[in-house]
Amino acid sequence: MRYKFAEIFEQIAKKDKKTVFMTGDLGFHAFERLRDKLGERFINAGVAEHNMVTAAAGMAYAGLKPWIYSIAPFVTIKVLEEIRNDICLPNYNVKIIGLGGGYDYGIAGPTHHAINDVGIMMTLPNMRIYTPGFAEHIAPIITKLNKESGPTYLRLTKAEPLNIKIPQYTSLQRIIRGDKVVVVVLGSIINKVLPAIQGLSRKNSVDLWLVSELPFNLTKELKTSLQKTSNIVVVEEHVKTGGLGDYFQHLLVESKIYPKKYRHLHSRGYISHRYGSRDFYLKENKLDRESLKKELST
Asked: Which sequence ranges form a coiled-coil region, renumbered to this chain (predicted)?
């Protein structure tokens, strides 16, 4: 997703001279062209994310449009106080781009994983969160962010390619129509959920929905499907507390929808305390294709 982000962002920044890009010493083999095109509006803040956040807030106060970029936990957990105090409380127009949502950084281990970032950012005032499921959705999201004003967190991942027709972007969208179980997915874990569904023996059983923005509201179509099936599965590469599962349950109660069956498939952290790839962690947490296929077939 970062390559697509760099491509689209360059087009936007060339048109708007107030746009500034700041990186926490990251972007090798992805942002060299962007650096050359933006010149002094491309700032490598170094391994100093706290300073980067506060400097971005100052730029926003002065009327500039800063976008800050680093590994996801380094621009969420590590700098939470600066984001809250300097960006969110005064409601400044700063875009925060975090690379490597979930277990994307694999072997780098827990310090580089972002499995509680959404929950943390959801607690902040004025914050809006974007979690694209497909690389094809980066362009419309970046275009939308450029038009919006206020604090934003964009959670980027590697986004594996899928052999499906990618639908036009909306914040909450139906990917597959079905009539037995509603599956609601947060962001790029869709790249494991879709192959699992395609491997099911019974076709058209899963009504699959992708959430790409938080907070959001239930659509009329989703409410109808939830009431019809009364069988719900929420899937996210995030811990149980504070993510899509928690938020979705509140929406159900507010809408007076009480399903007969509700399952929440989520990250449980580090079960074996061993290091491995993203696929290793997903398998441990039963978020891999085969585990999801088994869960969705029951």
From this structure: none
The pLDDT, as a whole number, for residue 203 is 73
User: HEC states along the chain?
Assistant: CHHHHHHHHHHHHHHCCCEEEEECCCCCCCCHHHHHHHHHHEEECCCCHHHHHHHHHHHHHCCCEEEEEEEHHHHCCCCHHHHHHHHHCCCCCCEEEEECCECCCHHHCHHHCECCHHHHHHCCCCCEEECCCCHHHHHHHHHHHHHCCCCEEEEECCCCCCCCCCCCCCCEEEEECCCCEEEEEEHHHHHHHHHHHHCCCCCCCEEEEEECEECCCCCHHHHHHHHHHCEEEEEEEEECCCCHHHHHHHHHHHCCCCCCEEEEEEECCCCCCCCCCHHHHHHHCCCCHHHHHHHHCC
What gap in Å lies between CA 77 and CA 123, rounded to an integer?
12
Query: Do 2-156 and 172-296 have matching folds?
Result: yes
Domain boundaries, the chain: 2-156, 172-296
Query: Which CATH number does the domain 172-296 belong to among 3.50.50.60, 3.30.565.10, 3.40.50.920, 3.20.20.70?
Result: 3.40.50.920
The mean pLDDT value of the chain amounts to 94
Query: Given the structure tokens 């599965």, which residue do they identify?
Result: 233
Q: How far is CA 128 from CA 105, 212, 284, in A?
A: 24, 11, 30
pLDDT in tens, 143-173: 999 999 999 999 999 877 777 888 899 999 9
CATH topology assigned to domain 2-156? Rossmann fold (3.40.50)
